[in-house]
Design brief:
Blueprint: E1 2-8, H1 10-13, H2 20-31, E2 35-42, H3 46-56, E3 62-66, H4 77-84, E4 89-91, H5 93-104, H6 112-117, E5 119-121, E6 125-127, E7 136-141, E8 144-149, H7 153-171, E9 176-185, H8 189-195, H9 197-201, E10 207-214, E11 219-228, H10 231-249, E12 253-256, H11 261-272, E13 276-280, H12 286-292, E14 301-306, H13 310-317, H14 321-326, H15 332-346, E15 350-356, E16 371-378, E17 381-388, H16 393-412
Helix pairs in contact: 2-7, 11-16
Length: 416
């Protein structure tokens, strides 16, 4: 069962807004056994809409269209669809009643332009939109379902949840599609594909493995997708193959599904009764930000010191001036003293300390841009690591935070 999503709007094509509707809709359709084959972003023109429909209808059972249903003259989707399907447009009282009710909530009265917005194609199934003034339209053509809804994300989600998906499920005999995602860090996509060659060859034909790299973050997600008629059978299949997959990846795996490194670290700290602080130079506080983005982090996170200048490293964290003279701020000696000084200052069990050259300026032949030292502590134990990253500042900052959190995770599970 294939679907196409068509998102209408010049604002999408010029990069004025991000097309969040497409990813959200694709996810929901996939969960209900409808695989999205194409996503098209097109202009607000009759020719573009006609062309997208001509392209999509032969290949897809379901075509979902968003955008272009407002009350202004540039919103031409409704009239274009009526022409495409050779339908007249007529005033639709339930749509106008919905508009009046929405306006009444704010003490307003719908004027005549909203009467025009309530004109709908005769022969289409009308989807009342209780979150906005534009009704959705459901067309059936040559055994295909073409559904047009407004582009406001809140309205898209309401109509998908309450009007479109329940009706599609009743109309279509869709297969079950289940996913299982493994989150890992430490190796790239190419290394993993080589490592898992034999595993992939051993998968049954109804299960596929996908590699979803997040290079800026320094992570990869592995997604197993199973397709079939019986969801319970698919669950059993996925359980079996996940149990085979995880031992092949070892400590690179930090979680499954929506688990993040910072949430996993938080669980480990909570389990051990440990507290955590951070000392950050080149990352400027992003490690602390990620840790505190987890609900409940106040139970284990104490504080962060952003010691960006050499003076702050000395005055706040107790780094020795001679260490900076002899070895420099980007050195194992400095990051070690940062970590120990933070542990003493905050009275915590664990510390993440980072110092490096984020770039794009500031490097030297001995310490080029992307050189970073990281230290993690656990009570009296300390582990340090030097990494060499790239030339892009924000990518270096993100990757440093990922590596640092992962080092602490591995230190806590005695994997270093």
């Amino acid at each position: 069962m294939k679907a196409t999503i068509i998102n209408i709007g010049d604002e999408l094509l010029i990069g004025q807004i991000v097309n969040t509707n497409a990813s959200w809709m694709a996810h929901k359709l996939n969960r209900h056994g409808i695989a999205v084959d194409k996503i098209l972003a097109i202009a607000d023109t009759k020719d573009a809409i006609f062309s997208a429909l001509d392209q999509s209808i032969p290949d897809s059972t379901v075509i979902l269209i968003t955008g272009g249903l407002g009350p202004t003259k540039d919103d031409i989707t409704k009239s274009t669809l009526a022409e495409y399907f050779n339908m007249d447009v007529k005033f639709h009282q339930p749509s106008f009643d919905n508009i009046k009710q929405l306006f009444a909530q704010y003490g307003r009265v719908a004027d005549e332009k909203y009467e025009m917005q309530a004109e709908m194609p005769v022969g289409a199934r009308i989807l009342i939109n209780k979150t906005g003034t534009a009704s959705g339209m459901w067309f059936e053509h040559k055994g295909k379902y073409i559904i047009s809804i407004p582009g406001v994300p809140r309205e898209v989600r309401y109509l998908m949840k309450y009007e479109i998906l329940p009706k599609l499920i009743l109309e279509l005999d869709t297969p079950a599609i289940l996913h299982r995602t493994i989150n890992l860090t430490g190796k790239g996509e190419t290394h993993l594909s080589e490592l898992l060659q034999d595993f992939e060859k051993g998968l049954p034909s109804n299960i596929k493995l996908a590699y979803l790299p997040e290079p800026v973050m320094g992570m990869v997600r592995l997604r197993l997708t199973a397709v079939g008629n019986d969801a319970m059978v698919l669950e059993t299949q996925l359980d079996h193959h996940v149990r085979k997959l995880i031992p092949l990846l070892g400590s690179m795996v930090f979680g499954e599904g929506k688990e993040t490194l910072e949430s996993v670290v938080g669980k480990l700290l909570t389990k051990e009764g440990y507290t955590l602080g951070t000392a950050e130079s080149c990352t400027g506080g992003i490690v602390a930000h990620k840790i505190t983005s987890v609900s409940g982090s106040s139970a284990y996170f104490e504080s962060s010191v952003v010691a960006y200048s050499n003076e702050s490293k000395v005055n706040l964290l107790g780094v020795k001036p001679e260490t900076l003279v002899d070895y420099g701020a980007v050195s194992e000696q400095c990051v070690t003293e940062m970590a120990k000084g933070t542990q003493k200052l905050l009275g915590v069990n664990c510390v993440i300390a980072v110092t490096g050259v984020a770039g794009p300026t500031g490097g030297s032949p001995e310490k080029p841009v992307g050189t970073v030292w990281i230290a993690v502590t656990k009570n009296d134990d300390i582990y340090t690591k030097k990494v060499h990253l790239g030339k892009e500042r924000m990518q270096n900052i993100e990757q440093t935070s990922t590596i640092a959190l992962n080092l602490l995770r591995r230190f806590l599970i005695n994997d270093l």
